[in-house]
Amino acid sequence: MKTRRAVALVLSAVAGAIAAGLAVAFGVRRRRGMPGAHGEPSVEGDLAALAPVLACVRCGGLLTWDDAATAYACDACARTYPVQGGIVHMIEQQDLTGQNRRFAYLYDRFAWGYALASKVAFAVAGMTEERGRREVLDRLQPRGGRVLDVSTGPGSNLPYLVARPDVGEVHALDISMGQLRHARALVRRRGWRVPLYLANAEALPFRDATFDAVVHVGGINFFDDRARAVAEMARVARPGARVVIVDEKERAARTYDRTIPGFRRSFATERPPVVAPVDLVPRGMEDIRLSDVWRGLFYCLEFVKPG
Ligand SMILES: C[S@@+](CC[C@H](N)C(=O)[O-])C[C@H]1O[C@@H](n2cnc3c(N)ncnc32)[C@H](O)[C@@H]1O
Ligand SMILES: [Zn+2]
Question: Most buried residue, 52, 124, 161, 240, by CB count within 10 Å?
Answer without folding.
Answer: 161
